[in-house]
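User: what does the whole thing look like in 3D?
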Amino acid sequence: MTDVTSPPPKRRWRPSLTWLGLLPFALFILLFLVMPTMKIVLGAFQRADGSFTFENIAGLFTPSILSSYWISIKISVASSAFGCLIGFLMAAGMVLGGLPRGIRSPLMTFSGVASNFAGVPLAFAFLATLGPLGLVTVFLRTEFGINLRAMGFNILSFWGLTITYLFFQIPLMILIITPALDGLKREWREAASCLGASGPQYWRIVALPILFPTILGTFALLFANAFGAVATAIALTGSSLNIVPIMLFAQIRGDVLGNPHLGYAMAFGMILVTGLANVIYIMLRIRSERWLK
Amino acid sequence: MTKAASWAILLLGLTYFILPLVGMVEFSLSMRRGEYSFDAYAAVLADPQFRETFSYSVVMALLTIVFGILLVVPTAFWVRLKLPRLRPLVEFVTLLPLVIPAIVTVFGYIRLYNTSSWLPLTGSIFGTNLLLMFGYAMLSLPYMYRAVDTGLRTIDVATLTEAAQSLGAGWVTIIVKLILPNVLVAVLSGSFVTFAIVMGEFTMAALLNRPAFGPYLQLMGANKAYEPFALATIAFIITWACMGLIQLVTRFTKHDKAGR
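Assistant: Here's the predicted 3D structure for the full assembly of 553 residues, as C-alpha coordinates:
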Protein backbone atom coordinates (compact mmCIF):
# COMPACT_ATOMS: atom_id res chain seq x y z
CA MET A 1 0.00 0.00 0.00
CA THR A 2 2.92 2.33 0.61
CA ASP A 3 3.90 1.63 -2.97
CA VAL A 4 0.93 3.59 -4.15
CA THR A 5 1.02 6.47 -1.71
CA SER A 6 4.68 7.21 -1.14
CA PRO A 7 5.97 8.18 -4.60
CA PRO A 8 3.98 11.40 -5.03
CA PRO A 9 5.24 13.13 -1.86
CA LYS A 10 8.74 11.98 -2.72
CA ARG A 11 8.47 13.55 -6.14
CA ARG A 12 7.17 16.73 -4.62
CA TRP A 13 10.05 16.85 -2.18
CA ARG A 14 12.83 16.08 -4.58
CA PRO A 15 13.05 19.39 -6.44
CA SER A 16 13.64 21.39 -3.28
CA LEU A 17 16.49 19.07 -2.31
CA THR A 18 18.09 18.93 -5.75
CA TRP A 19 18.16 22.71 -5.85
CA LEU A 20 20.40 22.68 -2.80
CA GLY A 21 23.18 21.18 -4.92
CA LEU A 22 23.32 24.36 -6.96
CA LEU A 23 23.26 26.64 -3.94
CA PRO A 24 27.02 27.31 -3.64
CA PHE A 25 27.27 28.11 -7.33
CA ALA A 26 24.17 30.29 -7.29
CA LEU A 27 25.42 32.14 -4.22
CA PHE A 28 28.80 32.76 -5.84
CA ILE A 29 27.21 34.04 -9.06
CA LEU A 30 24.82 36.23 -7.10
CA LEU A 31 27.50 37.79 -4.89
CA PHE A 32 30.28 38.25 -7.40
CA LEU A 33 28.58 38.67 -10.75
CA VAL A 34 24.89 39.54 -10.54
CA MET A 35 24.89 41.89 -7.55
CA PRO A 36 27.95 43.92 -8.60
CA THR A 37 26.47 44.31 -12.08
CA MET A 38 23.08 45.28 -10.65
CA LYS A 39 24.80 47.78 -8.37
CA ILE A 40 26.32 49.43 -11.46
CA VAL A 41 23.09 49.41 -13.42
CA LEU A 42 21.07 50.84 -10.51
CA GLY A 43 23.80 53.33 -9.65
CA ALA A 44 23.63 54.67 -13.18
CA PHE A 45 20.10 55.83 -12.42
CA GLN A 46 20.70 57.21 -8.93
CA ARG A 47 21.90 60.42 -7.31
CA ALA A 48 24.36 60.37 -4.43
CA ASP A 49 21.44 60.36 -1.99
CA GLY A 50 19.87 57.34 -3.69
CA SER A 51 17.01 59.09 -5.45
CA PHE A 52 16.12 58.15 -9.01
CA THR A 53 17.46 60.24 -11.90
CA PHE A 54 18.42 60.27 -15.58
CA GLU A 55 21.09 62.91 -14.97
CA ASN A 56 23.98 60.43 -15.07
CA ILE A 57 22.84 58.97 -18.37
CA ALA A 58 22.42 62.48 -19.72
CA GLY A 59 25.91 63.22 -18.41
CA LEU A 60 27.27 60.64 -20.84
CA PHE A 61 26.35 62.96 -23.67
CA THR A 62 28.99 65.51 -22.83
CA PRO A 63 31.60 66.01 -25.56
CA SER A 64 34.55 64.43 -23.69
CA ILE A 65 32.72 61.22 -22.76
CA LEU A 66 30.93 60.96 -26.06
CA SER A 67 34.21 61.29 -27.92
CA SER A 68 35.79 58.59 -25.72
CA TYR A 69 32.95 56.23 -26.64
CA TRP A 70 33.36 57.20 -30.28
CA ILE A 71 37.12 56.50 -30.30
CA SER A 72 36.54 53.21 -28.47
CA ILE A 73 33.90 52.15 -30.96
CA LYS A 74 36.08 53.15 -33.92
CA ILE A 75 39.07 51.18 -32.61
CA SER A 76 36.87 48.18 -31.84
CA VAL A 77 35.26 48.26 -35.29
CA ALA A 78 38.57 48.70 -37.10
CA SER A 79 40.37 45.99 -35.14
CA SER A 80 37.48 43.53 -35.50
CA ALA A 81 37.02 44.25 -39.22
CA PHE A 82 40.71 43.73 -40.01
CA GLY A 83 40.81 40.85 -37.54
CA CYS A 84 37.93 39.12 -39.32
CA LEU A 85 39.36 39.76 -42.78
CA ILE A 86 42.94 38.68 -42.09
CA GLY A 87 41.86 35.81 -39.84
CA PHE A 88 39.45 34.60 -42.50
CA LEU A 89 42.07 34.74 -45.26
CA MET A 90 44.62 32.90 -43.12
CA ALA A 91 42.12 30.22 -42.11
CA ALA A 92 40.83 29.85 -45.66
CA GLY A 93 44.39 29.48 -46.92
CA MET A 94 45.01 26.83 -44.29
CA VAL A 95 41.80 24.84 -44.84
CA LEU A 96 41.12 25.26 -48.58
CA GLY A 97 44.27 26.77 -50.05
CA GLY A 98 46.27 23.58 -50.40
CA LEU A 99 48.82 24.41 -47.73
CA PRO A 100 50.63 21.43 -46.19
CA ARG A 101 48.51 19.78 -43.48
CA GLY A 102 51.38 19.99 -41.03
CA ILE A 103 50.84 23.74 -40.73
CA ARG A 104 47.42 23.39 -39.20
CA SER A 105 48.14 22.03 -35.76
CA PRO A 106 50.94 24.51 -34.89
CA LEU A 107 48.90 27.43 -36.25
CA MET A 108 45.85 26.48 -34.18
CA THR A 109 48.00 26.06 -31.06
CA PHE A 110 49.64 29.39 -31.67
CA SER A 111 46.22 30.98 -32.15
CA GLY A 112 45.19 29.60 -28.78
CA VAL A 113 48.21 31.19 -27.13
CA ALA A 114 48.07 34.50 -29.02
CA SER A 115 44.36 35.02 -28.36
CA ASN A 116 45.20 34.75 -24.66
CA PHE A 117 48.28 36.95 -24.91
CA ALA A 118 46.59 40.26 -24.25
CA GLY A 119 47.18 42.74 -21.50
CA VAL A 120 50.32 44.52 -20.43
CA PRO A 121 52.94 42.21 -22.02
CA LEU A 122 51.31 42.60 -25.43
CA ALA A 123 51.61 46.36 -25.19
CA PHE A 124 55.32 46.03 -24.43
CA ALA A 125 55.85 43.68 -27.35
CA PHE A 126 54.44 46.29 -29.72
CA LEU A 127 56.32 49.15 -28.09
CA ALA A 128 59.52 47.19 -28.67
CA THR A 129 58.58 46.72 -32.32
CA LEU A 130 56.76 49.82 -33.53
CA GLY A 131 57.60 52.27 -30.75
CA PRO A 132 60.00 55.18 -31.35
CA LEU A 133 63.02 52.92 -30.73
CA GLY A 134 61.33 49.71 -31.82
CA LEU A 135 62.83 47.01 -33.99
CA VAL A 136 60.80 47.77 -37.12
CA THR A 137 60.90 51.56 -36.68
CA VAL A 138 64.67 51.62 -36.39
CA PHE A 139 65.13 49.07 -39.17
CA LEU A 140 63.00 51.05 -41.60
CA ARG A 141 64.79 54.27 -40.73
CA THR A 142 68.36 52.99 -40.98
CA GLU A 143 67.93 50.63 -43.93
CA PHE A 144 65.38 52.42 -46.08
CA GLY A 145 65.28 55.94 -44.69
CA ILE A 146 61.57 55.58 -43.95
CA ASN A 147 60.65 57.61 -40.92
CA LEU A 148 57.37 56.24 -39.58
CA ARG A 149 57.06 59.07 -37.12
CA ALA A 150 57.41 61.71 -39.82
CA MET A 151 54.77 59.86 -41.82
CA GLY A 152 52.36 60.41 -38.97
CA PHE A 153 52.47 56.92 -37.45
CA ASN A 154 52.49 56.77 -33.68
CA ILE A 155 52.03 53.61 -31.63
CA LEU A 156 50.12 55.67 -29.04
CA SER A 157 47.30 56.42 -31.43
CA PHE A 158 44.19 55.05 -33.05
CA TRP A 159 46.12 53.00 -35.61
CA GLY A 160 48.76 51.98 -33.11
CA LEU A 161 46.13 50.56 -30.78
CA THR A 162 44.25 48.93 -33.67
CA ILE A 163 47.38 47.19 -34.96
CA THR A 164 48.17 46.00 -31.42
CA TYR A 165 44.64 44.66 -30.82
CA LEU A 166 44.89 42.66 -34.05
CA PHE A 167 47.40 40.44 -32.28
CA PHE A 168 44.59 38.83 -30.26
CA GLN A 169 41.76 39.51 -32.72
CA ILE A 170 43.17 37.60 -35.72
CA PRO A 171 43.88 34.39 -33.74
CA LEU A 172 40.40 34.49 -32.21
CA MET A 173 38.90 34.73 -35.70
CA ILE A 174 41.06 31.82 -36.89
CA LEU A 175 39.94 29.70 -33.92
CA ILE A 176 36.25 30.34 -34.59
CA ILE A 177 36.15 30.34 -38.39
CA THR A 178 38.25 27.21 -38.99
CA PRO A 179 35.55 24.75 -37.85
CA ALA A 180 33.05 26.66 -40.01
CA LEU A 181 35.31 26.40 -43.05
CA ASP A 182 35.71 22.69 -42.31
CA GLY A 183 31.93 22.46 -42.38
CA LEU A 184 31.71 23.58 -45.99
CA LYS A 185 30.85 20.35 -47.75
CA ARG A 186 32.86 19.29 -50.78
CA GLU A 187 29.60 18.30 -52.48
CA TRP A 188 28.41 21.90 -52.53
CA ARG A 189 31.48 22.94 -54.45
CA GLU A 190 31.10 20.00 -56.84
CA ALA A 191 27.43 20.72 -57.34
CA ALA A 192 28.23 24.36 -58.05
CA SER A 193 30.88 23.54 -60.63
CA CYS A 194 28.60 20.93 -62.27
CA LEU A 195 26.12 23.74 -62.77
CA GLY A 196 28.90 25.77 -64.38
CA ALA A 197 29.79 28.11 -61.54
CA SER A 198 33.28 29.61 -61.48
CA GLY A 199 35.34 29.81 -58.30
CA PRO A 200 34.36 33.39 -57.47
CA GLN A 201 30.72 32.59 -58.27
CA TYR A 202 30.79 29.61 -55.88
CA TRP A 203 32.16 31.85 -53.14
CA ARG A 204 29.72 34.67 -53.80
CA ILE A 205 26.55 32.58 -54.16
CA VAL A 206 27.16 29.48 -52.02
CA ALA A 207 30.02 29.63 -49.54
CA LEU A 208 29.91 33.20 -48.27
CA PRO A 209 26.15 33.29 -47.61
CA ILE A 210 26.57 30.13 -45.53
CA LEU A 211 29.57 31.54 -43.67
CA PHE A 212 28.09 35.00 -43.35
CA PRO A 213 26.30 34.52 -40.00
CA THR A 214 29.47 33.03 -38.49
CA ILE A 215 31.62 35.86 -39.85
CA LEU A 216 29.24 38.58 -38.70
CA GLY A 217 28.77 36.90 -35.33
CA THR A 218 32.51 36.62 -34.83
CA PHE A 219 32.80 40.28 -35.80
CA ALA A 220 30.41 41.12 -32.94
CA LEU A 221 32.40 38.95 -30.55
CA LEU A 222 35.70 40.55 -31.56
CA PHE A 223 34.08 43.95 -31.16
CA ALA A 224 33.07 43.21 -27.58
CA ASN A 225 36.52 41.76 -26.97
CA ALA A 226 38.27 44.95 -28.10
CA PHE A 227 35.78 47.24 -26.40
CA GLY A 228 36.42 45.74 -22.97
CA ALA A 229 40.23 45.55 -23.27
CA VAL A 230 41.75 47.72 -20.56
CA ALA A 231 45.23 46.56 -19.69
CA THR A 232 46.73 46.72 -23.18
CA ALA A 233 45.41 50.22 -23.72
CA ILE A 234 46.62 51.55 -20.38
CA ALA A 235 50.08 50.02 -20.67
CA LEU A 236 50.43 51.25 -24.25
CA THR A 237 49.09 54.77 -24.06
CA GLY A 238 49.07 55.64 -20.38
CA SER A 239 46.23 58.11 -20.45
CA SER A 240 47.05 59.89 -23.68
CA LEU A 241 44.21 58.32 -25.65
CA ASN A 242 40.80 58.81 -24.12
CA ILE A 243 39.02 55.54 -24.76
CA VAL A 244 36.17 54.40 -22.50
CA PRO A 245 37.97 51.74 -20.44
CA ILE A 246 40.84 54.14 -19.70
CA MET A 247 38.45 56.92 -18.66
CA LEU A 248 36.49 54.53 -16.48
CA PHE A 249 39.71 53.24 -14.93
CA ALA A 250 40.78 56.79 -14.09
CA GLN A 251 37.30 57.54 -12.76
CA ILE A 252 37.39 54.54 -10.41
CA ARG A 253 40.93 55.36 -9.25
CA GLY A 254 40.05 58.91 -8.32
CA ASP A 255 36.92 60.71 -9.26
CA VAL A 256 38.21 62.58 -12.34
CA LEU A 257 34.82 63.57 -13.69
CA GLY A 258 33.67 65.29 -10.53
CA ASN A 259 30.59 63.10 -10.21
CA PRO A 260 30.99 59.58 -8.82
CA HIS A 261 27.73 58.44 -10.32
CA LEU A 262 28.88 59.36 -13.79
CA GLY A 263 31.28 56.42 -13.40
CA TYR A 264 28.28 54.12 -12.94
CA ALA A 265 26.75 55.49 -16.11
CA MET A 266 29.98 54.93 -18.08
CA ALA A 267 30.22 51.35 -16.82
CA PHE A 268 26.54 50.85 -17.65
CA GLY A 269 27.23 52.09 -21.17
CA MET A 270 30.03 49.54 -21.50
CA ILE A 271 27.73 46.70 -20.40
CA LEU A 272 25.16 47.90 -22.91
CA VAL A 273 27.63 47.93 -25.81
CA THR A 274 29.33 44.60 -25.06
CA GLY A 275 26.00 43.01 -24.12
CA LEU A 276 24.43 44.05 -27.41
CA ALA A 277 27.43 42.78 -29.38
CA ASN A 278 27.20 39.44 -27.59
CA VAL A 279 23.48 39.09 -28.20
CA ILE A 280 24.15 39.60 -31.91
CA TYR A 281 26.92 36.99 -31.73
CA ILE A 282 24.68 34.41 -30.03
CA MET A 283 21.77 34.97 -32.42
CA LEU A 284 23.96 34.65 -35.51
CA ARG A 285 25.71 31.66 -34.01
CA ILE A 286 22.40 29.83 -33.69
CA ARG A 287 21.55 30.71 -37.30
CA SER A 288 24.86 29.45 -38.65
CA GLU A 289 24.66 26.14 -36.83
CA ARG A 290 21.71 25.22 -39.02
CA TRP A 291 24.02 24.86 -42.02
CA LEU A 292 27.26 23.83 -40.51
CA LYS A 293 26.25 20.77 -38.52
CA MET B 1 42.12 30.52 -53.35
CA THR B 2 45.31 29.64 -55.18
CA LYS B 3 48.22 28.04 -53.43
CA ALA B 4 50.51 31.02 -53.99
CA ALA B 5 47.99 33.44 -52.51
CA SER B 6 47.52 31.15 -49.52
CA TRP B 7 51.25 31.05 -48.90
CA ALA B 8 51.51 34.81 -49.27
CA ILE B 9 48.77 35.58 -46.77
CA LEU B 10 50.05 32.96 -44.34
CA LEU B 11 53.59 34.32 -44.45
CA LEU B 12 52.40 37.91 -44.10
CA GLY B 13 50.27 36.92 -41.12
CA LEU B 14 53.09 35.00 -39.50
CA THR B 15 55.44 37.95 -39.99
CA TYR B 16 52.95 40.15 -38.17
CA PHE B 17 52.81 37.69 -35.27
CA ILE B 18 56.51 36.95 -35.06
CA LEU B 19 57.89 40.50 -35.36
CA PRO B 20 56.50 41.81 -32.04
CA LEU B 21 57.81 38.75 -30.24
CA VAL B 22 61.23 39.17 -31.84
CA GLY B 23 61.14 42.88 -31.05
CA MET B 24 60.26 42.18 -27.43
CA VAL B 25 62.97 39.58 -26.93
CA GLU B 26 65.56 41.62 -28.82
CA PHE B 27 64.86 44.68 -26.69
CA SER B 28 64.99 42.67 -23.48
CA LEU B 29 68.47 41.43 -24.42
CA SER B 30 69.96 44.78 -25.45
CA MET B 31 70.46 46.45 -22.06
CA ARG B 32 74.24 46.31 -22.50
CA ARG B 33 75.29 48.62 -25.28
CA GLY B 34 76.54 46.95 -28.44
CA GLU B 35 76.01 43.31 -27.45
CA TYR B 36 73.26 40.98 -26.31
CA SER B 37 73.13 40.07 -22.64
CA PHE B 38 70.78 38.85 -19.97
CA ASP B 39 71.41 41.97 -17.87
CA ALA B 40 67.77 43.02 -17.92
CA TYR B 41 66.71 39.58 -16.71
CA ALA B 42 69.33 39.68 -13.97
CA ALA B 43 68.08 43.11 -12.90
CA VAL B 44 64.51 41.85 -12.88
CA LEU B 45 65.29 38.72 -10.91
CA ALA B 46 67.29 40.71 -8.38
CA ASP B 47 64.39 43.07 -7.75
CA PRO B 48 62.69 42.06 -4.48
CA GLN B 49 59.46 43.61 -5.73
CA PHE B 50 59.50 41.21 -8.68
CA ARG B 51 59.81 38.23 -6.39
CA GLU B 52 57.07 39.53 -4.12
CA THR B 53 54.55 40.33 -6.84
CA PHE B 54 55.38 37.19 -8.80
CA SER B 55 54.95 34.90 -5.81
CA TYR B 56 51.82 36.79 -4.78
CA SER B 57 50.30 36.09 -8.19
CA VAL B 58 51.42 32.46 -8.13
CA VAL B 59 49.81 31.91 -4.71
CA MET B 60 46.64 33.71 -5.83
CA ALA B 61 46.54 31.59 -9.00
CA LEU B 62 46.84 28.37 -7.02
CA LEU B 63 44.15 29.45 -4.55
CA THR B 64 41.88 30.45 -7.42
CA ILE B 65 42.40 27.07 -9.05
CA VAL B 66 41.56 25.21 -5.84
CA PHE B 67 38.47 27.34 -5.28
CA GLY B 68 37.46 27.00 -8.94
CA ILE B 69 37.69 23.20 -8.78
CA LEU B 70 35.70 23.07 -5.54
CA LEU B 71 33.02 25.26 -7.07
CA VAL B 72 32.84 24.00 -10.64
CA VAL B 73 33.30 20.22 -10.42
CA PRO B 74 30.41 19.53 -7.98
CA THR B 75 28.19 22.03 -9.80
CA ALA B 76 28.82 20.65 -13.28
CA PHE B 77 28.40 17.12 -11.93
CA TRP B 78 25.16 17.95 -10.15
CA VAL B 79 23.72 19.71 -13.20
CA ARG B 80 24.50 16.75 -15.43
CA LEU B 81 23.12 14.22 -12.98
CA LYS B 82 20.08 15.88 -11.44
CA LEU B 83 19.20 19.05 -13.29
CA PRO B 84 19.90 18.42 -16.98
CA ARG B 85 17.13 20.84 -17.90
CA LEU B 86 19.07 23.67 -16.29
CA ARG B 87 22.20 22.96 -18.30
CA PRO B 88 21.67 25.67 -20.94
CA LEU B 89 20.95 28.21 -18.21
CA VAL B 90 24.03 27.34 -16.15
CA GLU B 91 26.16 27.33 -19.28
CA PHE B 92 24.83 30.75 -20.21
CA VAL B 93 25.57 32.09 -16.73
CA THR B 94 29.14 30.78 -16.85
CA LEU B 95 29.69 32.66 -20.11
CA LEU B 96 28.54 35.99 -18.65
CA PRO B 97 32.02 36.98 -17.43
CA LEU B 98 33.00 37.16 -21.11
CA VAL B 99 30.16 39.60 -21.73
CA ILE B 100 30.58 41.92 -18.77
CA PRO B 101 34.00 43.59 -18.88
CA ALA B 102 36.23 42.88 -15.87
CA ILE B 103 36.57 46.60 -15.19
CA VAL B 104 32.81 46.84 -14.69
CA THR B 105 32.64 43.86 -12.33
CA VAL B 106 35.49 45.10 -10.17
CA PHE B 107 33.91 48.57 -10.06
CA GLY B 108 30.81 46.85 -8.70
CA TYR B 109 32.92 44.98 -6.13
CA ILE B 110 34.48 48.21 -4.90
CA ARG B 111 31.10 49.89 -4.49
CA LEU B 112 29.36 46.83 -3.07
CA TYR B 113 31.97 45.62 -0.59
CA ASN B 114 33.50 48.89 0.63
CA THR B 115 34.25 49.56 4.26
CA SER B 116 30.82 51.01 5.03
CA SER B 117 28.83 48.21 3.36
CA TRP B 118 27.17 45.13 4.82
CA LEU B 119 30.10 42.92 3.78
CA PRO B 120 33.22 45.13 4.12
CA LEU B 121 35.61 42.88 2.20
CA THR B 122 37.82 45.76 1.07
CA GLY B 123 38.31 46.87 4.66
CA SER B 124 41.09 44.39 5.42
CA ILE B 125 43.99 42.96 3.42
CA PHE B 126 42.71 39.42 3.91
CA GLY B 127 39.26 40.45 2.79
CA THR B 128 40.59 42.19 -0.31
CA ASN B 129 42.71 39.17 -1.21
CA LEU B 130 39.63 37.02 -0.82
CA LEU B 131 37.62 39.37 -3.02
CA LEU B 132 40.37 39.35 -5.65
CA MET B 133 40.40 35.55 -5.61
CA PHE B 134 36.64 35.48 -6.16
CA GLY B 135 37.12 37.95 -9.00
CA TYR B 136 39.79 35.75 -10.60
CA ALA B 137 37.54 32.71 -10.19
CA MET B 138 34.84 34.68 -11.97
CA LEU B 139 37.16 35.59 -14.85
CA SER B 140 38.23 31.99 -15.33
CA LEU B 141 34.74 30.52 -14.83
CA PRO B 142 33.90 30.31 -18.58
CA TYR B 143 37.05 28.31 -19.30
CA MET B 144 36.95 26.17 -16.18
CA TYR B 145 33.28 25.26 -16.51
CA ARG B 146 33.53 24.50 -20.20
CA ALA B 147 36.56 22.26 -19.65
CA VAL B 148 34.96 20.30 -16.81
CA ASP B 149 31.61 19.99 -18.57
CA THR B 150 33.30 18.66 -21.71
CA GLY B 151 35.21 16.23 -19.52
CA LEU B 152 31.97 15.00 -17.91
CA ARG B 153 30.46 14.40 -21.35
CA THR B 154 32.92 11.59 -22.02
CA ILE B 155 31.85 9.54 -18.99
CA ASP B 156 28.51 8.02 -18.06
CA VAL B 157 27.85 10.07 -14.95
CA ALA B 158 24.49 8.50 -14.04
CA THR B 159 25.63 4.86 -14.25
CA LEU B 160 28.87 5.52 -12.40
CA THR B 161 27.02 7.36 -9.64
CA GLU B 162 24.43 4.61 -9.27
CA ALA B 163 27.13 1.98 -9.11
CA ALA B 164 28.99 3.94 -6.45
CA GLN B 165 25.81 4.55 -4.48
CA SER B 166 24.86 0.90 -4.49
CA LEU B 167 28.30 0.18 -3.06
CA GLY B 168 27.49 2.61 -0.27
CA ALA B 169 29.45 5.69 -1.31
CA GLY B 170 28.34 9.15 -0.16
CA TRP B 171 28.35 12.31 -2.29
CA VAL B 172 31.78 13.47 -1.16
CA THR B 173 33.29 10.07 -1.90
CA ILE B 174 31.61 10.01 -5.30
CA ILE B 175 32.93 13.41 -6.31
CA VAL B 176 36.43 13.04 -4.88
CA LYS B 177 37.11 9.40 -5.70
CA LEU B 178 35.01 8.85 -8.79
CA ILE B 179 34.23 12.03 -10.72
CA LEU B 180 37.41 14.01 -10.09
CA PRO B 181 39.82 11.29 -11.30
CA ASN B 182 37.67 10.80 -14.39
CA VAL B 183 37.70 14.47 -15.36
CA LEU B 184 41.23 15.11 -14.15
CA VAL B 185 42.49 16.03 -17.60
CA ALA B 186 39.69 18.53 -18.10
CA VAL B 187 40.31 19.97 -14.64
CA LEU B 188 44.02 20.26 -15.42
CA SER B 189 43.48 22.11 -18.66
CA GLY B 190 41.00 24.44 -16.95
CA SER B 191 43.60 25.00 -14.24
CA PHE B 192 46.33 25.93 -16.71
CA VAL B 193 44.08 28.50 -18.37
CA THR B 194 43.21 29.88 -14.95
CA PHE B 195 46.89 30.10 -14.08
CA ALA B 196 47.68 31.99 -17.28
CA ILE B 197 44.76 34.38 -16.73
CA VAL B 198 45.65 35.16 -13.12
CA MET B 199 49.36 35.66 -13.83
CA GLY B 200 48.65 38.26 -16.48
CA GLU B 201 45.60 39.93 -14.95
CA PHE B 202 45.95 43.66 -14.47
CA THR B 203 42.64 45.48 -14.07
CA MET B 204 41.22 43.81 -10.95
CA ALA B 205 44.48 43.72 -9.01
CA ALA B 206 45.27 47.33 -9.90
CA LEU B 207 41.86 48.66 -8.89
CA LEU B 208 41.82 46.64 -5.66
CA ASN B 209 45.38 47.84 -4.92
CA ARG B 210 46.88 44.41 -4.52
CA PRO B 211 50.60 43.83 -5.27
CA ALA B 212 50.14 41.41 -8.16
CA PHE B 213 52.38 40.72 -11.14
CA GLY B 214 50.20 42.54 -13.69
CA PRO B 215 50.20 45.97 -11.99
CA TYR B 216 53.94 45.56 -11.27
CA LEU B 217 54.50 44.95 -14.96
CA GLN B 218 52.64 48.13 -15.84
CA LEU B 219 54.51 50.13 -13.20
CA MET B 220 57.87 48.92 -14.52
CA GLY B 221 56.76 49.82 -18.03
CA ALA B 222 56.24 53.39 -16.95
CA ASN B 223 59.55 53.69 -15.10
CA LYS B 224 62.23 51.45 -16.61
CA ALA B 225 63.75 51.06 -20.06
CA TYR B 226 64.74 47.42 -20.63
CA GLU B 227 63.37 45.52 -17.64
CA PRO B 228 59.71 45.66 -18.77
CA PHE B 229 60.60 43.77 -21.92
CA ALA B 230 62.34 41.06 -19.94
CA LEU B 231 59.21 40.85 -17.78
CA ALA B 232 56.95 40.70 -20.82
CA THR B 233 59.07 37.89 -22.25
CA ILE B 234 58.74 36.00 -18.97
CA ALA B 235 54.95 36.57 -19.04
CA PHE B 236 54.75 35.30 -22.60
CA ILE B 237 56.75 32.18 -21.70
CA ILE B 238 54.31 31.51 -18.84
CA THR B 239 51.30 31.80 -21.15
CA TRP B 240 53.00 29.64 -23.74
CA ALA B 241 53.96 27.01 -21.14
CA CYS B 242 50.40 26.85 -19.80
CA MET B 243 48.93 26.37 -23.27
CA GLY B 244 51.63 23.85 -24.14
CA LEU B 245 50.82 21.87 -21.00
CA ILE B 246 47.14 21.75 -22.00
CA GLN B 247 48.07 20.33 -25.40
CA LEU B 248 50.37 17.82 -23.75
CA VAL B 249 47.75 16.69 -21.24
CA THR B 250 45.04 16.29 -23.88
CA ARG B 251 47.30 14.41 -26.25
CA PHE B 252 48.38 12.17 -23.40
CA THR B 253 44.80 11.14 -22.64
CA LYS B 254 43.83 10.62 -26.27
CA HIS B 255 46.64 8.11 -26.38
CA ASP B 256 45.38 6.56 -23.19
CA LYS B 257 41.86 6.19 -24.54
CA ALA B 258 43.01 4.76 -27.86
CA GLY B 259 45.06 2.13 -26.10
CA ARG B 260 42.11 0.79 -24.18
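In plain terms: DSSP finds 14 helices and no strands in chain A. The domain at 56-291 of chain A is CATH 1.10.3720.10 (MetI-like fold).
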